[in-house]
Amino acid sequence: xxxxxxxxxxxxxxxxxxxxxxxxxxxxxxxxxxxxxxxxxxxxxxxxxxxxxxxxxxxxxxxxxxxxxxxxxxxxxxxxxxxxxxxxxxxxxxxxxxxxxxxxxxxxxxxxxxxxxxxxxxxxxxxxxxxxxxxxxxxxxxxxxxxxxxxxxxxxxxxxxxxxxxxxxxxxxxxxxxxxxxxxxxxxxxxxxxxxxxxxxxxxxxxxxxxxxxxxxxxxxxxxxxxxxxxxxxxxxxxxxxxxxxxxxxxxxxxxxxxxxxxxxxxxxxxxxxxxxxxxxxxxxxxxxxxxxxxxxxxxxxxxxxxxxxxxxxxxxxxxxxxxxxxxxxxxxxxxxxxxxxxxxxxxxxxxxxxxxxxxxxxxxxxxxxxxxxxxxxxxxxxxxxxxxxxxxxxxxxxxxxxxxxxxxxxxxxxxxxxxxxxxxxxxxxxxxxxxxxxxxxxxxxxxxxxxxxxxxxxxxxxxxxxxxxxxxxxxxxxxx
Length: 481
Fold this sequence. Notes:
Spore Coat Polysaccharide Biosynthesis Protein SpsA, Chain A, six-stranded mixed beta sheet, 15 helices, elongated, transferase, Nucleotide-diphossugar_trans, Glycosyltransferase family 2 protein
């Protein structure tokens, strides 16, 4: 594939999207913010990829298998760009507009489609053909085709559009004025030219009273708000845990808190999930599954096992995330103020009866010298242990530790380390050698680190003496030497 002038994209293949080989057509990109979507994310990507050219996915702190499924799909050949915002509190408006601007500037698309992970492009005809016909000098509004849970759902079907085939007979509406709820499709250059902003939830744009809006009834977003009682339980529990640690409340927070009270009261959870799928709407339900005949890409689900984590597993992972965030608060108070935090790669472990970390003297000295937030390993037997008063984390949790770089000590080969972490979610561009890191912080940074090293080591020895006595401290130092 290659790009030509006027942002018309050529694909050297026949793709079933209504274009012949070598024929010009639009470049269409979607973007989606995800947070624990493992039950639906594979269906979402495999289906929507039939109608768009590239996906941008923003990880807002997934702790389930969502990202592993996404990385597996990237290995299959899906063109997906992943950005990490795990340290950012959930703020859809700010993050959506940040990445909308970034996509326009860096990827130069014709159309941008903001999609939630529970939204699927659909129409009575091929959605791609309808997208190709959109006026690029307008912003486009479409409606939701709202699907609900019923007793007729095939709970053994993992591909969500096949599982859930019943929806409201008309688009959902605003309770305030009865007008249909809209979702946006963005003409990229026009959006930039008009200096627009995208509203919370992707429902409208604002910022220029002269913006031209076109409403469409043929193109829709199929919306699967709730897909199982298990999903309702784990999402409610995990989100309410996170909500405790944030300073913001909104309508969604209240909804989750209300649902949590229902879970704790012991009501019928399937019926509660069914009601949640209706979201308070009172509307006739009809059998109207989305048309899968336009799908040329593979829509067979391959990663069932990754999507079927138990509620206990999901809650455990969320608990670990919150524990790591608490560790960050305490660790930050002890760090050097004038150096940004980094992560070092752990260079050793040992043990017969049990495995425990065994960093080299070289790494121990570096940990006290620089501003080290934690240590990275791919050995899951020692994850979340501490060494040199630093937390040991595996690749899936590295995103929850603030860090400018992942530094490889001289005891390890940097190329081998990079290959070791391919496809794990670690940002390989952040992995650098110790020599490169020292160059990054410059003479002043290294001098600052060196001046702080001696008092740090003396304080560490003092603390060890307090816990273990002078004799045992001497024995420990000798063993390390």
